[in-house]
Amino acid sequence: MKFRVERDVFADAVAWAARSLPVRPSSPVLAGLLVEAGDEGLVLSTFDYETSARATLAAEVSDEGTALVSGRLLADICRSLPAKPVELTLDGARVSLTCGSARFSLQTMPVEDYPTIPEMPAATGTVSSEAFAHAVGQAVTAAGRDDMLPVLTGVRVEIEGDTIALLATDRFRLAQRELTWNPGQPDASLAALVPAKVLGDTAKSLTVGQEITIALSAGSGGDGLIGFEGSGPGGVRRTTTRLLDGEFPKVRSLFPTERLTVARIEKAALIESLKRVSLVAERNTAVQLSFADGVLTLDAGTGDEAQATESVEAAIEGEDLVTGFNPQFLLDGLGAIDETHVELAFTQASKPVVITGTGDDASAESNGSFRYLLMPRRLLG
Questions:
Q1: Beta carbons within 8 Å of 45's beta carbon, 6+ residues apart
Q2: Alpha carbon distance 280, 301 (integer Å)
Q3: Of 67, 280, 321, 372, whose CB is crowded by the most CB atoms within 10 A?
Q4: Domain check: are 153 and 205 in the same one?
Q5: Domain's final residue, options 242, 266, 286
């Protein structure tokens, strides 16, 4: 194997493929990055039996071949190389990498021990890469991080015709985001539970091109697979990941149909006030929110401990109300909203709040397409 490739293109592709390498691989070969030089150029791949990454890029291939080398080491080396073409040659059990006057020799691992990388399922449709990355970023805000509850560490992806709905919850909050896309079949109706971390990282990393192709094979018994593919100046990039097995809770019914108290507030002012007041809130305690007379008053701290209070103007419709929330969860939801103003809608103080964006800056696509539901916390004292 021997090839020559532009340094920036190669370094970027290696870094992208290596980003999903396991921190503690169950087998040494799973820490490897598979380098294949052939007719289609250069293909760089990683796979840990759950998630695969594959980058295809142009290169001057002199001799075809395949090598398996340490992915993280190769990524570190590529980051440090000078801005000159890279030449890589396989010589026996070692790979020689040359860039300008820099030369590296890397030990290879047995290619025959590397697992077979899964094929991409048949394409289901395409979506704007920027819109998808932004929507996923909003949805994963509420995804769980407790591996003891694996179903809640996923994002439920629901496809109905030309609409994709993304749902995530950790039992204390719920995020829902909808966006339009271009389905391969107009009457498509599919659902999948995708690991939130993989979905978030993948969506963010595929924004170099204008579109992402989504390919879904929703098998049973944990055999389901979802794939994402994007093209850009650096070539084609493809990720597949196994779907999570389990029944995602039926969360749509948690959104209330009535609104007895609604407060409209400038988002930036609320975020800054909440950050200041929550400085004195002890761990796992709530910040109190009081809605009355056109003002939202935030309070934190009790008894002999440090206390803080601050008021923010609010357009309030309905009954006065006093409730409390985990300040970080509230900040997470507010930060995921695009618009300059937010609406907090309540049925009663002991029930969840539904937070949405509102304002003249709300686009037709985004307005009302993201909803964040947050459970209240018991107030001390």
A1: 17, 33, 34, 36, 52, 53, 54, 55, 117
A2: 6
A3: 372
A4: yes
A5: 242
Per-residue confidence in pLDDT tens, the chain, 381 aa: 999 999 999 999 999 999 989 989 999 999 999 999 998 899 999 999 999 999 999 999 999 999 999 999 999 999 999 999 999 999 999 999 999 999 999 999 999 999 999 999 999 999 999 999 999 999 999 999 999 999 999 999 999 999 999 999 999 999 999 999 999 999 989 999 999 999 999 999 999 889 999 999 876 545 799 999 999 888 999 999 999 999 999 999 999 999 999 999 999 999 999 999 999 998 888 999 999 999 999 999 877 789 999 999 999 999 999 999 999 999 999 999 999 999 999 999 999 999 999 976 555 445 458 999 999 987 654
In a domain, 307, yes or no: yes
How many CB atoms sit inside 10 A of residue 80's CB? 10
Q: How far apart are the first and last CA of the chain?
A: 72
Residues 216 and 277 in one domain: no
- Establish if 7 belongs to a structural domain: yes
* 77: CATH: 3.10.150.10
Q: What is the DSSP letter of 268?
A: H
Burial of 241 (0-12, 13-18, 19+ CB in 10 A): buried
Say whether 140 sits in a helix, a strand or coil.
helix
Q: How long, in residues, is the chain?
A: 381
Residues 229 and 165 occupy one common structural domain: yes
Residue 249 is assigned to a structural domain of this protein:
no
Kindly report the backbone phi and psi dihedral angles of residue 80, in degrees, each rounded to the nearest multiple of 5, phi listed first.
-95, -5
Q: Can you tell me the distance from the alpha carbon of 279 to that of 300, in angstroms, rounded to the nearest whole number?
A: 8
> How many domains does the structure of the chain reveal?
3
Are 193 and 149 contacting, i.e. CB atoms less than 8 angstroms apart? no
- Provide the 3-class DSSP secondary structure of residue 33: strand
Work out the angle between the directed axes of helices 267-277 and 327-335 (0-180°, nearest 10).
160
Same-domain pairing of 86 and 165: no
Give, in order, the Cα–Cα distances in Å from 139 to each of 132, 161, 206, 231, 309.
11, 20, 17, 24, 31
**Distance in angstroms (rounded) separating the CA atoms of residues 247 and 255:** 19
Print the domain residue range for 189. Answer: 123-242
